[in-house]
């Protein structure tokens, strides 16, 4: 591996090896990424103070889990490094134990693997590869109830992929059945395959039957109507979520959890003794420049232990800060050092 200045993605890749090993994937993520002048889907909506991706977020049973990735900012380096390295590096314990690093790194990998593995059965597994599709993906959002790939989408191209005959047993064929707003709704030809896909010019959405989702088309309808402003979004329904998103929701990679969500498409793991009993958590990484990554963390915790939190939050970084105001916890940290994995 060549020596170079590293950013947030090498932290993500290093601590994410544990997640990759569970599915037998190879590699780790590293990057010489630069700051993005165009915020893309991570930009703040003019109508409020929340990141734009939050328009897709809704609450179900007062719970939510999500992962957001600004693919425009980090995608090229993620693919190049993840596919090019071997998983023989050990995870430094200081990163694996840092609640500001490990959950976000695993979140990045879970979103990437969802496309490459889960969407392969719909012939969309190469959606993130520029040479494979004319459609361009800018952002990835994976929640407990739905997946969203936002960008410049060619609906006819996606239609041809998902409606093609299933030439292998693992492939699934869809047919257009309805519309949800400006999106075409597709459902499986095989009624036993319980999933749904919605395709528009700005996004592709996927929902699957899980303990969190009884009816995939309904899950897609909820996300689309929220994005279109026709129904309440998670930040409208919960002041806690609104505060979490405002304090830590902007980033190139973001992971969030609120309430006690049922098993769904994503599992955000913030399990830590110091965070036990948290009502909600959002943590993010932003690539500031070629050698600097910034982490933001916000949580709502009943009776937080400030000393215990100070010992772990951002402990692997520099320029750390921690603010505790009653049940509100905010932390920041900066990573500048080259990460050496032996």
Overall geometry comes to: globular
SSE sequence, one letter per element = HHEHHHEEHEEEEHHHEEEHEE
**Largest β sheet strand count, sense and barrel closure:** 12 strands, antiparallel
Mean pLDDT: 83
InterPro entries: TAT_signal (IPR006311)
Structural overview:
With 342 residues, the chain is α+β, with helices and mostly antiparallel strands. The protein has one domain. It has ten helices and twelve strands. A twelve-stranded antiparallel sheet has the order 4-5-6-7-3-2-1-8-9-10-12-11. The longest helix is centred in the first third of the chain and has 15 residues.
Quickly describe the structure.
The protein is an alpha+beta fold. About 25% of the residues lie in helices and about 25% in strands. The protein has a twelve-stranded antiparallel β-sheet with strand order 4-5-6-7-3-2-1-8-9-10-12-11.
List the helices and strands and how they pair.
Elements: H1 8-15, H2 17-21, E1 64-70, H3 71-82, H4 93-96, H5 102-116, E2 136-143, E3 147-152, H6 155-162, E4 174-180, E5 183-188, E6 195-199, E7 203-208, H7 216-227, H8 234-237, H9 239-248, E8 253-258, E9 278-289, E10 292-301, H10 306-312, E11 318-325, E12 328-335
Antiparallel strand pairs: 1-2, 1-8, 2-3, 3-7, 4-5, 5-6, 6-7, 8-9, 9-10, 10-12, 11-12
Helix pairs in contact: 1-5
């Amino acid at each position: 591996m060549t020596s170079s200045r590293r950013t947030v993605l090498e932290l993500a890749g290093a601590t994410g090896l544990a997640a990759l090993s569970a599915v037998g994937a190879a590699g780790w993520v590293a990057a010489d990424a630069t700051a993005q002048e165009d915020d893309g889907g991570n930009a703040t909506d003019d109508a409020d103070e929340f990141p734009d991706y939050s328009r897709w977020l809704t609450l179900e049973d007062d719970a939510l889990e999500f992962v957001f990735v600004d693919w425009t900012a980090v995608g090229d380096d993620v693919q190049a490094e993840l596919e090019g390295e071997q998983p023989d590096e050990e995870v430094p314990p200081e990163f694996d134990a840092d609640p500001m690093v490990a959950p976000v790194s695993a979140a990045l990998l879970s979103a990437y693997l969802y496309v490459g593995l889960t969407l392969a059965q719909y012939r969309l597994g190469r959606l993130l590869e520029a040479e494979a599709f004319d459609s361009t993906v800018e952002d990835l959002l994976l929640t407990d109830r739905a997946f969203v790939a936002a960008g410049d989408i060619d609906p006819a191209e996606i239609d041809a992929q998902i409606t093609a005959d299933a030439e292998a047993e693992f492939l699934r064929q869809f047919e257009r059945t309805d519309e949800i707003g400006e999106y075409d709704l597709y459902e499986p030809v095989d009624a036993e395959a319980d999933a749904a896909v919605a395709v528009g010019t700005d996004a592709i959405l996927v929902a699957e039957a899980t303990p969190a989702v009884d009816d995939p088309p309904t899950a897609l309808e909820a996300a689309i109507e929220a994005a279109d402003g026709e129904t309440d979004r998670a930040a409208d329904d919960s002041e806690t979520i609104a505060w979490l998103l405002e304090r830590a929701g902007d980033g190139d990679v973001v992971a969030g959890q609120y309430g006690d969500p049922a098993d769904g498409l994503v599992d955000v793991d913030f399990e830590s003794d110091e965070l036990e009993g948290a009502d909600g958590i959002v943590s993010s990484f932003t690539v500031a420049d070629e050698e600097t990554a910034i982490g933001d963390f916000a949580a709502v915790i009943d009776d937080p232990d400030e000393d215990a939190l100070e010992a772990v939050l951002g402990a692997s970084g520099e320029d750390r800060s921690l603010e505790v105001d009653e049940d509100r916890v905010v932390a920041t940290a900066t990573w500048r050092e080259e990460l050496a994995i032996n």
